């Protein structure tokens, strides 16, 4: 039998996620809502780890080091990959258009295929942020299309099997994630509320967001998504883990490995995705098995990145040929991408291992130039001096020229370290010593001198050397046109005092580089690196925003006093009425309060200044005005270890707001800010304060609506309903209140009340299309209603409500090409299973497990003779259905098992326990005939459920027709149980 290696090679991570999500969905099936919410929070933390793993090279390095330290984790990863290979090897699928290696590898490969210079294309790509962004967007689209093709194949295969509803949901959820553009694993149902298994409802999402706001240090970075939030990925190529078993796995599965491929680039292209996915799985397996406390501690940590010596040593082993060329290429790539210090690190390593003197010269010079751009001029001078000494080992034709170039470089470094006088003297010496050289060489030296003069700000000398270069150079020289443009700029700005325009032009170029590096450092969580670049920015162009950003970094590193001073300076320099001014003042107040643990006059002054700076013209929308000021307050104070201090700060805000006579209710604004951050309980406390100060019925109604929304967000529809009702009492014409009541009643499956409420809203605003649409949707939902009023158990009613709520949440969204009913029908099935278990099976189970005739110790376990049977006593073993019910863990019977319950018991009627079970059911009114009727209905419902779970529905009418069929069966079962209990 031929095993297909394409799925595991090209879609290892996607296959792993299907399995991981399926296992997770299974783990939350029989939990209470509170337990399920807890599991989802842990699951969300693991997914946030994946976000950071793909963006933070320092964190990736740390994670992979933990994996490399643990043989147990490595064993688990190896076993999972082998199991996935066994599972996917029978899938007849391969993608001829699967993308190859990403990033620089793809750019170089594409250049070679087009006949372009791969080196030049790589450099051009590395230094152009717009080209990188366009490439990332195109690459994401190609990857997404390829993954969706594979997932569609998996879905079709899964739909051909029975009893695998969770696998289907896991596949469909991943398809939803891929189509949304998020590629960091199962990101909690970004598009479809039908996830997972009718368990991921809005209140769980609300709880996850609340937990993240309260506990994660870098929450803003974890919540960011899309291309604009992605850093330059150049450094991620240096974080691949060294998994010792990977080579063995590759040989076992593919018959070849990257390590043993030598110069065969095709093997690297084939297996790159397998290796990349293996590393992601490795990190996921490590992190997902940690405790919640460990996860939070790790996510809140700092992981400064440096290219490790261990990784460079691995390159020495696996790139034995042309090492100097490889390293010089990587140095250049990182240099042009702006990662100067990392380029220098590679240069130092390469130099220490290189034997060839000529190659050592080029490595030393490149290393020095990297240090120069990083503005470590002392290190740059040391390396330039080393390079100058090595020029003696070069060929005769280039030796003299390179020596003058390195003299020029050393002179430039002396300028930065010792001033311009030394520089001018050294440059004059070079000019004197090179005047005898041929014009071709002399022109290049003149251009080099001009560039050094430009970088050091000696623009009078730059002009002289550019003029000499133009007189000597061949017009076909690639630098000739650049020199002419530069000279034209000199001509146009000749009247400027001290070359002002030229200096501003140079300054702008440096600012662009610094801003790019600073932004990239922040996006990749590299805050030590960000501090270096923000200080470079401040040296050239200090602005209020830059001061504010530096203060955030200082605060991150615990330098609060300096951060407070910078915030005050930033606030004082900001324009009046600007958000920057408000933000700086409120940040000043927050940091001052947290640092001193007091709400003193300075803190109050900061709050007052922030409010005065907001301006009444900025109040449109929740993102602006006073709520705009409060959002960072809530974002910050929720992480304080002193809740009392947080409360005092907010009271001070409210007090200053009232003292200034500003329009609006400060308690209301604070509550809204809390609610925006999913802090619903805190929001309610402030809304209730706001209600005490409300002067009119309409004001109170608006506040009551917000209180209701806070309950609704938590999934407490009953409490939300009460507050919406109070709002209608205060303001009978409140659209929000009537629509809110309709939403609550719908979620509780009280469709008659929901229709009455939405009709009132429509009467108030007959032209409102949104309300009319809600009325149509509720009417459809009420066409066949589950008889909840006949069910005693609130837990069972809640399960059915969740199923209908999920269906309703789809209907309130946009019309879609197809609908997945799987999670809804699974929830209906769970409701029936739980109802039958609580009504029929649980009382019998408890009574039998307390009976000493059948249990050695009451409540502990069934006697072996009854459980396994006894040949000696001629007692058959208990049937599987009864073992399910009477076993130690509490389990309900699956729908399909009810149809076999009576026949299973009859087959083992010689087992006294089977007979006892049957008699007890009859005593409670559940005769064999009744159980068979229930079993037949359960069988029908199971068939309907399985059919709906494995099909896509293409219109809302089809969805509702299927729902009506299922609800009819559910109501028949409810009717049987209800009639017997009356």
Structure description:
- The protein has 982 residues and is mainly alpha-helical.
- Among the domains are: 6-299, no CATH class; 819-981, no CATH class.
- Helices cover 71% and strands 0% of the residues.
- The protein is built from 48 helices and two strands.
- Strands 1-2 form a two-stranded antiparallel sheet.
- Helix 2 (12-27) packs across helix 9 and helix 25 (500-523) packs antiparallel against helix 26.
- It is globular, with a radius of gyration of 35 Å.
- Residues 180-199 and 616-623 have low confidence and may be disordered.
- TPR repeats lie at residues 701-734, 735-768.
- Pfam families: TPR_19.
- Keywords: TPR repeat.
- This is Tetratricopeptide repeat protein.
List keywords for this structure.
about 1000 residues, mainly alpha, two-stranded antiparallel sheet, 48 helices, about 70% helix
Task: Give me the secondary-structure topology.
Layout: H1 6-10, H2 12-27, H3 33-53, H4 57-69, H5 71-88, H6 104-113, H7 118-126, H8 129-159, H9 165-179, H10 202-215, H11 219-223, H12 246-254, H13 265-288, H14 292-299, H15 309-318, H16 323-337, H17 340-353, H18 357-373, H19 377-390, H20 396-418, H21 420-434, H22 439-456, H23 459-472, H24 480-492, H25 500-523, H26 527-540, H27 544-556, H28 560-573, H29 579-596, H30 601-614, H31 625-637, H32 643-659, H33 666-676, H34 680-692, H35 697-713, H36 717-730, H37 735-747, H38 751-764, H39 769-781, H40 794-811, E1 819-820, H41 822-849, H42 864-867, H43 880-886, H44 895-898, H45 901-907, H46 912-923, H47 928-949, E2 952-953, H48 956-981
Antiparallel strand pairs: 1-2
Helix pairs in contact: 2-5, 2-9, 3-10, 3-13, 3-14, 4-13, 5-13, 6-7, 7-16, 8-9, 16-17, 16-18, 17-18, 18-19, 19-20, 20-21, 20-22, 21-22, 22-23, 23-24, 25-26, 26-27, 27-28, 27-29, 28-29, 29-30, 29-31, 30-32, 31-33, 33-34, 34-35, 35-36, 35-37, 36-37, 37-38, 38-39, 40-41, 41-46, 41-47, 41-48, ...
């Amino acid at each position: 039998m031929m095993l297909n290696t394409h799925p595991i090679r090209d879609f290892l991570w996607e296959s792993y996620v299907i399995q991981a999500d399926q296992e997770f969905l299974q783990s939350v099936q029989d939990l209470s809502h509170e337990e399920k919410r807890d599991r989802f929070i842990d699951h969300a933390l693991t997914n946030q780890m994946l976000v950071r793993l793909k963006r933070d090279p320092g964190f990736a390095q740390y994670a992979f080091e933990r994996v490399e330290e643990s043989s147990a984790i490595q064993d688990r990863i190896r076993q999972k990959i082998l199991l996935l290979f066994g599972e996917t090897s029978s899938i007849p699928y391969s993608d001829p258009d699967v993308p190859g290696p990403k990033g620089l590898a793809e750019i170089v490969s594409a250049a070679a295929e087009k006949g372009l210079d791969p080196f030049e294309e790589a450099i051009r790509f590395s230094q152009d942020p717009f080209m990188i962004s366009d490439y990332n967007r195109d690459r994401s689209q190609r990857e997404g299309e390829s993954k969706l093709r594979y997932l569609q194949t998996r879905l079709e295969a899964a739909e051909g099997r029975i009893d695998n509803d969770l696998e289907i949901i896991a596949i469909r959820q991943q398809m939803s994630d891929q189509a949304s553009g998020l590629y960091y694993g199962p990101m909690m149902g970004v598009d479809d509320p039908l996830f997972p298994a009718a368990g991921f409802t809005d209140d769980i999402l609300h709880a996850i967001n609340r937990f993240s706001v309260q506990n994660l240090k870098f929450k803003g970075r974890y919540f960011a998504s899309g291309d604009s939030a992605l850093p330059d990925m150049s450094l991620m190529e240096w974080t691949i883990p060294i998994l010792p078993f990977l080579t063995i796995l590759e040989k076992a599965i593919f018959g070849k490995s990257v390590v043993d491929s030598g110069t065969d680039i095709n093997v690297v292209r084939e297996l790159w995705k397998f290796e990349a996915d293996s590393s992601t799985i490795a990190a996921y397996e490590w992190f997902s098995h940690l405790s919640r406390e460990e996860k939070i501690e790790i996510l809140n940590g700092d992981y400064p990145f440096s290219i490790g010596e261990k990784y460079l040593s691995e390159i020495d082993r696996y790139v034995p040929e042309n090492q100097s060329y490889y390293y010089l290429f990587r140095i250049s790539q990182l240099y042009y991408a702006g990662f100067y210090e990392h380029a220098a690190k590679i240069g130092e390593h390469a130099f220490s291992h290189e034997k060839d003197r000529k190659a050592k010269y080029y490595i030393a010079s490149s290393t020095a130039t990297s240090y120069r751009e990083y503005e470590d001029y002392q290190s740059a001078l040391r390396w330039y001096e080393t390079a100058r000494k090595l020029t003696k080992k070069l060929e005769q034709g280039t030796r003299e020229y390179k020596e003058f170039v390195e003299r020029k470089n050393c002179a430039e470094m002396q300028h930065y370290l010792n001033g311009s006088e030394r520089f001018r003297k050294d440059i004059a010496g070079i000019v004197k010593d090179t005047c005898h050289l041929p014009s071709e060489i002399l022109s290049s030296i003149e251009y080099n001198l001009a560039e050094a003069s430009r970088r050091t700000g000696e623009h009078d000398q730059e002009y002289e050397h550019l003029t000499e270069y133009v007189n000597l150079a061949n017009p076909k020289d690639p630098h000739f046109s650049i020199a002419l443009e530069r000279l034209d700029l000199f001509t146009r700005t000749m009247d400027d005092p001290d070359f002002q325009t030229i200096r501003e032009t140079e300054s702008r170029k440096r600012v662009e580089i610094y801003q790019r590096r600073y932004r990239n450092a922040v996006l990749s969580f590299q805050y030590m690196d960000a501090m270096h670049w923000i200080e470079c920015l401040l040296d050239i162009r200090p602005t209020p925003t830059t001061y504010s950003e530096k203060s955030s970094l200082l605060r991150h590193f615990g330098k609060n006093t300096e951060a407070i001073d910078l915030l005050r300076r930033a606030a004082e320099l900001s324009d009046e009425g600007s958000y920057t001014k408000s933000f700086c003042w409120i940040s000043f107040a927050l940091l001052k309060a947290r640092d001193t643990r007091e709400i003193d006059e300075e803190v109050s002054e900061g709050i007052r200044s922030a409010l005065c700076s907001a301006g009444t013209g900025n109040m449109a929308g929740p993102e602006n005005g006073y709520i705009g000021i409060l959002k960072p307050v809530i974002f910050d104070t929720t992480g304080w270890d002193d809740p009392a201090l947080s409360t005092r700060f907010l009271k001070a805000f409210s007090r200053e707001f009232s003292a200034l006579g500003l329009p609006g209710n400060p308690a209301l604004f604070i509550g809204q800010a809390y609610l925006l951050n999913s802090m619903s309980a805190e929001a309610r406390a402030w809304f209730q304060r706001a209600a005490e100060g409300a002067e009119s019925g309409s004001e109170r109604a608006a506040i009551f609506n917000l209180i209701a929304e806070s309950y609704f967000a938590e999934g407490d529809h009953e409490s939300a309903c009460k507050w919406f009702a109070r709002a209608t009492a205060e303001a009978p014409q409140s659209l929000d209140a009537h629509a809110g009541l309709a939403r609550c009643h719908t979620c509780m499956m009280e469709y008659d009340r929901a229709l009455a409420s939405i009709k009132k809203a429509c009467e108030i605003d007959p032209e409102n299309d949104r309300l009319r649409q809600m009325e149509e949707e509720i009417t459809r939902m009420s066409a066949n209603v589950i008889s909840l009023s006949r069910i005693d158990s609130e837990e069972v009613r809640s399960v059915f409500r969740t199923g209908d709520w999920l269906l309703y949440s789809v209907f309130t969204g946009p019309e879609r090409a197809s609908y997945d009913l799987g999670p809804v029908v699974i929830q209906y099935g769970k409701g029936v299973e739980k109802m039958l278990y609580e009504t029929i099976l649980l009382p019998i189970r408890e009574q039998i497990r307390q009976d000493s005739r059948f249990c050695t110790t009451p409540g502990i376990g069934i006697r072996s003779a009854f459980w396994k049977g006894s040949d000696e006593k001629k007692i058959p073993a208990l049937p599987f259905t009864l073992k399910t019910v009477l076993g130690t863990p509490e389990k309900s019977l699956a729908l399909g098992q009810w149809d076999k319950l009576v026949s299973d018991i009859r087959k083992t009627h010689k087992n006294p326990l089977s007979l006892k079970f049957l008699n007890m059911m009859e005593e409670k009114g559940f005769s064999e005939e009744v159980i068979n009727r229930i079993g037949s209905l359960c069988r029908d419902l199971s068939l309907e459920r399985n059919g709906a779970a494995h099909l896509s529905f293409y219109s809302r009418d089809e969805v509702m027709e299927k729902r009506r069929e299922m609800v009819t069966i559910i109501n028949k079962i409810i009717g049987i149980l209800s009639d017997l209990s009356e």
